Amino acid sequence: MKHVPDIQSERALGPDGRVVRDGGDGTLNELDENALEAALALVEASEGSVTVLTVGPDDAADAVRRGLQMGAEDAVHVLDDAIAGSDAIGTARVLAAAIRHLDAQQHVDLVVTGMAGLDGLTSLLPTALAELLDLPALPLAAELTVDGATVRVRRNLDHASEVLEATLPALVSVTDQANEPRYPNFKGIMAARKKPVTTLTLADLGVDASRVGLSGARTEVLEAAARPPRDDRVLVQDTGDAGVRLAAYLVDNQLV
Predict the structure, then answer these.
(1) Mean pLDDT of the chain
(2) 46 occurs within a structural domain
């Protein structure tokens, strides 16, 4: 579960090419709420427990605390200054190490992620994480079920749907079509105060700091510029025929 800048706030890249993450309130990545809801529903339908995991600075703890309020049993926050500036591959490397750490303590059957982070919108992390963990990846699931040792997802494509299956353990990323995330109730909020949040560092996970952060990034932003203002807008004053004029414009420009 990722802590991201508020999508309603002004967003920009700083001089170093990194997303500016201060100057406004952050929030839990909305698409990760769908992932947590899917995991909670699986546990409620059968058995098991849900651990929420995040990587980021101090305020990233808000993301996993939200997860605890929604119903997760415990939480892990990987906190280390050396992680700052990591790209999707570096972040996946840290998450993979954290999941292996958890798996050594209690077997991890299923890793569930959102389909994208609303700050970068690369959608790269789920499959990169699956590759690093050597797990089958079932991305962009609109429906998720588990039957014994088999995980099954349905994906909605442009003109069809497809069903994918894999044997656990596996990794699934879910879309915002998968469910409607629950809202934490008062009981859940109060119970979350007593639930543990474990903080881990790169040293705890055995991750070489040179392989993450800016120094370990495999991508680099060379240049960025603000989107130029649009100068081709046409203001149509409705005198009763605006609909006809709009339809004619679409036809003339071969947009219908």
Answers:
(1) 88
(2) yes
In whole angstroms, what separates CA 46 from the centre of its chain? 25
Q: Is 174 helix (H, G, I), strand (E, B) or coil?
A: strand
- Supply the CATH number for residue 65's domain: 3.40.50.620
**Could you give the strand order of the β-sheet that contains 143-147, starting from the edge strand earlier in sequence?**
143-147, 150-156, 161-167
Q: Let me know if residue 242 belongs to a domain.
A: no
Q: Which two tokens stand for residue 102?
A: 């958890």
23 has pLDDT over 70: no
Distance of alpha carbon 137 from alpha carbon 157, whole angstroms:
17
Across residues 195-206, what is the average pLDDT? Answer: 94
Cβ atoms of 76 and 98 within 8 Å: the answer is yes
What's the pTM? Answer: 0.82
231-256 pLDDT per residue, tens: 777 777 888 888 888 888 889 888 88
CA atoms 202, 203, 205, 206: torsion sign: positive
3-state secondary structure of 147: strand
Cα separation, 170 vs 110, whole angstroms: 5
If one counts every other C-beta atom within 10 angstroms of the C-beta of residue 121, the result is 10
Residue 248 lies in a domain: no
Place of tokens 């039957």: 147
pLDDT of the residue at 233: 78
Q: Domain range holding 201?
A: 3-230
Chain centroid offset of residue 250 CA: 37
